[in-house]
Design a protein that fits this description.
The complex is a heterodimer of chains A (247) and B (231). Chain A has 247 residues and is of the alpha+beta class. Chain A has eleven helices and four strands; from the N terminus they run βαβαββααααααααα. In chain A, strands 2-1-3-4 form a four-stranded mixed beta sheet, covered by helices on one side. In chain A, helix 1 links the parallel strand 1 and strand 2. Chain A starts with 15 loop residues before the first strand and ends with a helix. Chain B is α+β, with helices and mostly antiparallel strands and 231 residues long. Chain B contains ten helices and four strands, in the order βαβαββαααααααα. Chain B has a four-stranded mixed beta sheet, covered by helices on one side. In chain B, a hairpin with a 2-residue loop joins strand 3 and strand 4. The longest helix of chain B has 27 residues. The chains are: A alpha+beta (247), B alpha+beta (231). Chains A and B meet through strand 4, helix 3 and helix 4 of A and strand 4, helix 3 and helix 4 of B.
Chain lengths: 247, 231
């Protein structure tokens, strides 16, 4: 489990706290975002499988991580937090600077969480034909991501940006889910652009030096989740397809 | 620059389309509105070209660039036209984050309950309970965000106003269809009065559809779905 970095004493960095969960890909986005901006923060670990009163105090509507606490105010939702960080500390911008490319970044970030992540979660927690069907949906949507990365080092261009952080789960979480669920989702021969971006991203100096969930623990964690959720999702039957939609 | 290269592919009946129209009106931006039969399974070529990923309305076309997803469009309008009056998103980073948070709550959590009511079979009670609970949450949000003024955005219509306000047509349809009093002044006085103010605002009054037109539209779409051979 994870430990805190020291709180900075500089005024603008006053009281930056991240409430997160060690393996949460959403918490991780925020941690990388702050690191890219050189903002020191205090990390508070929350066990999302055993939620504390603090979590509900800070996020009464959803009781989820991550939550950013800054100067005594707090709010949740990783994409909203990233935009806040970018606006409050404008150096090393995470978002593109012009309105059209900012719109594209927001569009694809929403796409990533709804059209990629949701079906991929079902790939982890289903089996047989259902699992293959979910994996096919992931594959179709990944084609759009592959199109986007063509000719670019990062989704942000020459530097890591907002969309790289949002899509980061492709680089390290999907491979873990593939291993746990024994099924391929991101085939490097089918998605060479994504494969190259994955290498670039994981070897980025900031990504490498900030906290990263340990691989073995990540695999064990998701093995447990799959074990718990498999029977539950099976019992949903066809309702799953209404939820994640078809291609 | 009036009218220069701004088009909206949308529909009078769609709240997502309405919010784009209302925002353009707030900013006094002229635009060409192109009605799409979005509920038909065969989408127009124009729509498919403009939004190949989702094939959905609304799409804003500005200087031949297409932007889709209503909340993305709203933020684009705010950022692309900086000298057309106040921004609809607050300028303070924290207030802006809170505005985004409430927009996402309204779209992703609260409004889906209203849609579920349509499909409900036997569990309407629980869904209605959620809807009312959500309204109490939004009433509290209104009190906090408005700080005693007319709108979530303060003196002027802002982001949350447009997002929630664009649903008012459909909220009234649900009230009529299910015999519910959602905008009840005794329960949610702030929001009830806000709703009246919003619907009569110049930017919104000709955009938020009338209840009887929407009811007719809803019944027509249901009939189309029943009669069509594919989903």
């Amino acid at each position: 489990m994870e430990e805190s970095s020291s709180t900075s004493n500089s005024t603008s960095n006053k009281g930056v706290k991240v409430v997160g969960f060690w393996v949460s890909l959403f918490s991780q986005r925020v941690r990388w975002g702050l690191k890219l901006k050189g903002i020191e923060y205090e990390y508070v670990e929350e066990d999302i499988n055993n939620k504390s009163p603090l979590l509900f105090e800070l996020n009464p509507l959803y009781g989820k991580v991550p939550i950013l606490v800054h100067d005594g105010v707090s709010f949740p939702e990783s994409r909203i937090i990233l935009e806040y960080i970018d606006q409050f500390w404008p150096h090393n911008p995470l978002m593109p600077l012009d309105p059209y490319h900012r719109a594209q970044a927001r569009f694809w970030a929403k796409f990533a969480d709804e059209k990629l992540l949701d079906p991929a979660w079902f790939v982890l927690n289903l089996e047989g034909e259902d699992q293959e069907r979910a994996a096919k949906i992931v594959s179709v949507h990944l084609e759009k991501i592959e199109e986007m990365i063509k000719g670019k080092k990062y989704f942000g261009g020459n530097t890591i940006g907002f969309l790289d952080l949002v899509l980061a789960f492709i680089a390290y979480i999907l491979p873990a889910w593939e291993e746990v669920a024994s099924i391929k989702m991101v085939d490097p021969s089918k998605f060479p652009g994504i494969a190259t971006w994955t290498d670039n991203f994981l070897n980025h100096p900031v990504v490498k030096t900030e906290y990263f969930p340990p691989k073995d623990q990540t695999l064990s964690y998701y093995k447990c989740r799959r074990h718990e959720l498999l029977p539950l999702y099976k019992s949903y039957g066809n309702k799953i397809w209404t939820y994640i939609g078809t291609q | 620059m009036a009218g220069s290269g701004v088009k909206v592919l949308g529909s009078w009946s769609s709240p997502y389309s309405n919010r784009v129209q209302i925002t353009l009106n707030l900013k006094s931006i002229d635009y060409e509105f192109i009605e799409e039969n979005f509920y038909m399974s065969n989408k127009s070529e124009r729509l498919v070209e403009a939004n190949p990923v989702h094939k959905k309305i609304p799409v804003l076309i500005h200087d031949e660039k297409a932007i889709s997803e209503s909340l993305v469009i709203l933020q684009y309008i705010d950022e692309a036209w900086t000298s057309n009056g106040p921004t609809i998103l607050p300028s303070d980073p924290y207030d802006r984050a809170i505005a985004r948070f409430w927009a996402s709550y309204i779209d992703d959590k609260w409004f889906p309950w209203l849609k579920e009511l349509e499909k409900a079979s036997g569990d309407e009670g629980a869904i209605v309970g959620n809807i009312f609970e959500g309204l109490m949450v939004l009433e509290e949000a209104f009190v906090k965000c408005s700080k005693g003024k007319d709108y979530f955005g303060g003196d002027n219509i802002g982001y949350i106003d447009v997002v929630l306000g664009s649903y008012l047509g459909w909220i009234k349809v649900i009230e009529t269809g299910f015999g519910l009093n959602l905008l009840d002044e005794t329960r949610i006085p702030g929001l009830t009065r806000w709703a009246q103010r919003f619907c009569s605002h110049d930017a919104a009054k000709d955009v938020v559809p009338q209840t009887d037109k929407l009811v007719q539209f809803f019944m027509m779409v249901q009939a189309t779905k029943t009669n069509s051979s594919s989903g």
